[in-house]
Specification:
heterodimer, A: mainly alpha, two-stranded antiparallel sheet, 19 helices, about 75% helix, B: mainly alpha, globular
């Protein structure tokens, strides 16, 4: 039996136990902790010389349709699985006391985790899509029930928007399926790729556009981004961590898995369009981020902005830029999860995240401010953290593709603008940090009983930050794995 | 037996002090200290100070060993990113004469500043945070010095920026300090934006990132002089940011909000000189591109003269010194742009590091005893209250002003002679700047140290503690002697000649002395008995309105632009498009609303139903 199946089954069993009445927090924490260990083990145990799909398992369901439950992992999936298990675990850890339906709350979180793990190790597009839906639906429910602010509107907007995105994506997948000659049709990812690489199927380039819009919406590519800020600011802390940290990366993952290998020509044909959109993500949304007046909105918009840089890595479409994009996906996932966790911890204490009402918290919350400082630095790409390694590789990759495209002007402009992105992100992150933690606190009604994070609360964030540091200092740990998948 | 033991010891020491080991020890000792302080000794002030000092001392000792034994060579490091031929970035280090000299300067000054800090920070909050930050700074600065490729240098370049941010906003509850730290980081990032572009351009052109390879691939640029010039100008952006050249100089005076030893070590002696060091690293390339050098020359000459003008009207002790630093960095960069070897700019970097560090340390002593008062007009008569500090200040002042027989005059005169040979306009610009330098530093000296005390604080000031005096007096020696050939040649001769090819007419030397005398005497006459500034030039007091201009750019242009985009995003992209589409979807899906029952089971049911439906559909299609 494939160990990947355990990754899915462990949280599933925990979910069943919780619904049967087991203590929700303990059970789910244990299951995800085991998953982290298993994820690390699989990551380290992967045979880097043999490469290819490992931990493979196929359970035939409808072979005549090419619809089987196929599990397998390569370097890219394992990186994403490591991210998933870690963020799931820390998200559950930082969850504050749940007053309303705690069992349902933890079940939803586990369901998201199951969906994500399933999506990242499914080799069948049908299950790839299905698992993603399993992860997406609890997000809507969680915003609707436990959200903050105008949660009904936020849940409604996210449902409609991401639902529409998923629907377009589904259309794209079905169209891709139908593009193959009828005796060879299959939902299997490997078959789909092979068919198009050997020129047996000729999927039309509008299918690429469907995939681009579908995945783009999930990734919050401009102009399909406006669900992100309201969703993240209303979602409960662990949901925001999981969604921004991992679930959003599913769109990028899918794009790398499906769109890039099947449509190499369309990628080039539409590169101008994608470059325009990603430049909007960086420049336009970067400046929108500067204008934000609340910490959660700043983080939400910043995570939208960083997607632009990652997309540059994808369309530049060479080994450097793609590895950089994956590294940045990983780094961004961890750092944004840490930021949302800290944002939640801050909100618990101050009841507000508006810059106007905050200030001078560094002396009150030394631990919190230290951790936020580290996460801030990671997210603005300070060398030493994984994000920097990812960004610099993307820049090198994009530069290389300028040469490959004979000095293409659009690539040059996009590269320069995305490098300017490091200035923009420094501006908004440092402004936010300065306004929350430095200076003096405006008079507050009851700030006397505010207490700093306990060591227990610090631990999960420290895990995320330490991993960011380790990967930032030894990026080869991930790159050597990822490159086997990309070649 | 004893002989055997001793020879064993000698062999062990020799093997241990091989180049790679030594370099790693020099490089990592401060980092380890910072990590220890951060994780373990946060609440123990004495242990923290001892740890930090010990690590610095180890680095300094190692640097001196490397220097004395004249070691040279590459230290292969770990491959940070490895894509084979496509791109390989290693954390590699190299020791050559340039790195050796810089190592000794950085670690020696750092050791003295660390000692001084123990006295200066004794009463302050965040003592351990301060030492962790300072140690981390030393680590990243050594990274710049040792780097053998652009990315290793860029990584440490960013890290010194970060540690500078950390140390400037040490007193974070003060709004000015918090703003200054933020500004320093962002302005440096703007410079780094250009720097990174330059690195990428050079990478395109040469396919390499290592200094030695790039410096030896000049023939690639024979047919593409413009490409070389453009990439060098971009790389120079990094220097503009870090070494505070016009127009990105604004952060340096504001960074004076940090503790004074920080201003002394980072913002005068070492970190800001990293920009000059970078140019010296790629000197062969720079030498090959007259176009780039022309632009660099003009920017730095403007900086030299402009900052010297601004120094004359500042009333804040440290800000005068800050503008003086900008101006002196301008001299160094001018020298890089004119000379034929990297020795001359490095010579000024070398002497400046000592005397400017010294000046800042004296200003710190004054500040400490004046209860953080920095307005020179509230001082006066400190000569009698703080005699040793005053002597140390004299040494630094005369070196800075270019008084003959003091270190600064040797290196600065050399740069001015260079300018005399290559460009007369530049020559007069920097000669006037030299006169202004003598003027403003004499002004500070007279107003702060002479005359009668003008406030109660000045009347009650007392001499600084020994732990602070000792580094100041030790630094006074190189401030005087560092320029003499017997001293300077040991450090700089391997870099190239400190002599100019042609003898210059004697009147040039006389001009320098006259300019020095003119500046000093003018300040003496004007400020001898002044109790407030008799001169008031609004444009200089307002720093050429450059700060105001940036303020306007940020507040009125950038923030309004951002707010406008935010409005568009909120009301047009989200409001009209999304909600509009949603409205259509809403009316279209009116019936579907009946399905929105709002519980998990129902949704799961729908999902399963949908999946089954699709499978059935496909089966039929099949």
């Amino acid at each position: 039996m494939s160990p990947l199946l355990f990754l899915i089954l462990l949280p599933l069993f925990a979910l069943v136990f919780i619904l049967l009445g087991a203590p929700a927090r303990f059970t789910s924490l244990m299951a995800t902790a085991l998953n982290v260990l298993l994820g690390c083990f699989l990551f380290l145990h992967y045979d880097r010389i043999a490469a290819g799909w490992q931990y493979f398992q196929e359970i035939p369901l409808l072979p005549q349709l090419g619809l089987n439950f196929t599990l397998g992992a390569d370097g890219l999936s394992l990186t994403m699985l490591l991210l998933t298990t870690l963020v799931s675990f820390t998200a559950l850890w930082v969850t504050p006391r749940v007053e309303q339906y705690p069992a349902l709350f933890y079940s939803c979180l586990l369901l998201i985790s199951i969906g994500l793990v399933g999506a990242f190790c499914s080799l069948n597009t049908f299950f790839l899509y299905g698992f993603h839906e399993i992860a997406l639906i609890p997000v809507f429910i969680m915003i609707g029930i436990w959200g903050s602010g105008d949660r009904q509107a936020a849940a409604w907007k996210a449902t409609l928007y991401l639902g529409a995105g998923s629907f377009i994506l589904l259309l794209g997948i079905i169209a891709l399926y139908l593009a193959a000659p009828s005796n060879l049709r299959s939902f299997d990812l490997r078959v789909m790729t092979e068919l198009s690489q050997h020129n047996i199927s000729h999927p039309a380039s509008w299918i690429y556009l469907l995939l681009l819009v579908g995945f783009g919406t999930l990734v919050s590519l401009f102009p399909f981004h406006s669900w992100a800020p309201s969703t993240y600011s209303s979602a409960p802390t662990p949901t925001a961590m999981l969604h921004a940290g991992v679930l959003k990366k599913f769109g990028l993952y899918g794009f790398i898995r499906l769109a890039l290998p099947i449509f190499p020509i369309a990628v080039e044909k539409f590169s101008l369009l994608v470059l325009f959109l990603l430049v909007c993500n960086i420049l336009y949304l970067g400046y929108v981020t500067i204008a934000q007046q609340r910490f959660d909105w700043t983080i939400a918009y910043s995570s939208v902005m960083h997607m632009g840089t990652i997309f540059l890595g994808l369309v530049a479409f060479n080994i450097l830029s793609l590895s950089g994009a994956i590294l940045l996906m990983f780094g961004h996932g961890l750092s944004v999860a840490a930021l949302f966790a800290l944002c939640g911890a801050l909100r618990c204490r101050t009841q507000t995240l508006e810059y106007q009402k905050l200030g001078g918290l560094a002396s009150r919350f030394p631990r919190l401010s230290f951790l936020v400082g580290c996460a801030t630095m990671a997210s603005l790409g300070l060398p030493g953290f994984a994000n920097f390694a990812g960004e610099i590789l993307i820049f090198f990759g994009a530069t290389a593709s300028i040469i490959i495209n004979h000095g293409s002007l659009s690539f040059t402009i996009a590269t320069i603008i995305s490098i300017w992105g490091i200035v923009i992100s420094a501006i908004y992150m440092l402004r936010a940090y300065r306004r929350i933690f430095f200076g003096t606190l405006p008079a507050h009604e009851d700030s006397t009983h505010w207490s700093d994070l306990s060591l227990f609360e610090c631990a999960p964030i420290l895990i995320l930050l330490l991993l960011l540091l380790v990967v930032g200092i030894f990026p080869q740990a991930i790159l050597s794995l990822v490159t086997t998948a990309l070649r | 037996m004893l002989a055997l033991f001793l020879s064993c010891c000698a062999a062990w020491t020799a093997s241990w002090t091989s180049l790679p080991n030594l370099v790693w020890v020099i490089y990592l000792a401060p980092l380890l200290a910072a990590l220890f302080i951060l994780s373990l000794t946060r609440h123990h002030r004495r242990i923290t100070a001892a740890l930090a000092l010990m690590a610095t001392f180890i680095s300094a000792l190692g640097s001196w060993i490397v220097f004395y034994r004249g070691l040279e060579g590459n230290v292969p490091g770990l491959k940070w990113i490895n894509f084979g031929d496509a791109l390989t970035i290693s954390i590699g280090m190299t020791i050559d004469p340039l790195a050796r000299t810089m190592l000794v300067v950085v670690t020696t000054i750092a050791t003295l500043v660390f000692i001084y800090s123990i006295g200066y920070m004794r009463q302050e909050s965040g003592f351990t945070r301060y030492f962790a930050g300072l140690s981390f700074f030393l680590f990243s600065m050594l990274g710049i010095v040792l780097a053998d490729n652009f990315i290793m240098l860029f990584i440490n370049w960013e890290l010194v920026g970060f540690s500078s941010y950390l140390l400037i906003m040490h007193f974070f509850e003060k709004n000015a300090a918090a703003d200054a730290g933020k500004q320093a980081f962002i302005v440096n990032r703007v410079g780094d934006f250009g720097f990174l572009l330059g690195i990428l351009l050079l990478w395109i052109a040469t396919g390499s990132l290592s200094f030695s390879t790039i410096n030896h691939s000049l023939e690639l640029f024979v047919e593409h002089p413009t490409l070389l010039a453009v990439s060098l100008i971009f790389i120079f952006c990094g220097t503009i940011g870090k070494s505070a050249q016009f127009p990105l100089h604004v952060w340096l005076p504001n960074s004076m909000e940090g503790p004074t030893p920080v201003s002394s070590l980072l913002h005068a002696a070492t970190m800001v000189a990293a920009g000059v060091y970078l140019l010296a690293r790629i000197f062969p390339l720079l030498h090959f591109s007259p176009g780039a050098r022309e632009i660099i020359l003009w920017i730095s000459a403007i900086t030299t003269l402009g900052a010297a003008f601004l120094g004359t009207q500042q009333n804040d002790f440290k800000r005068v010194l800050a503008y003086s630093t900008i101006s002196q960095l301008g001299y160094m960069v001018t020298a890089v742009a004119m000379t034929t070897s990297a020795a001359i700019p490095m010579f000024h970097l070398f002497t400046h590091a000592f005397f400017k560090c010294l000046l800042f340390l004296t200003s710190g002593a004054v500040m400490l005893r004046m209860h953080h008062e920095l307005d020179i007009w509230k001082m006066g008569g400190l000569r009698k209250r703080m005699p040793f500090t005053c002597i140390a200040f004299f040494c630094g002042m005369l070196a800075l002003a270019g008084c003959p027989f003091f270190s600064g005059s040797f290196s600065k005169d050399l740069i001015m002679k260079l300018a005399f040979e290559s460009n007369k306009v530049i020559f007069w610009m920097i000669v006037i700047a030299a006169g202004l330098t003598a003027f403003y530093i004499t002004r500070v000296c007279i107003v702060a140290f002479f005359g009668e005390p003008r406030t109660e604080q000045a009347r009650q000031a007392s001499e600084a503690p020994v732990v602070m005096l000792l580094p100041m007096l030790l630094l006074s020696l190189p401030a005087i002697f560092a320029g003499y050939p017997f001293f300077a040649n040991r450090f700089l001769a391997p870099l190239g000649s400190l002599q100019l090819p042609h003898e210059l007419p004697a009147f040039v030397e006389i001009i320098f002395i006259l300019v020095f005398l003119a500046g000093t005497l003018a300040a003496l006459l004007i400020y001898r008995n002044a109790t407030r500034d008799p001169i008031s030039i609004p444009i200089l007091i307002n720093r050429f309105y450059i700060d105001a201009c940036y303020d306007w750019l940020v507040k009125s242009i950038q923030d309004r632009f951002a707010a406008a985009l935010d409005f568009i995003d909120h009301w047009i992209i989200d409001g009209v498009f999304v909600q509009g589409t949603a409205l259509i979807a809403w009316s279209f899906g009116f019936l579907l609303r009946l399905l929105q029952v709002g519980n998990l089971q129902a949704y799961t049911l729908f999902l399963t139903g949908g999946v089954i439906g699709i499978i059935l559909f496909l089966l039929k299609f099949h």
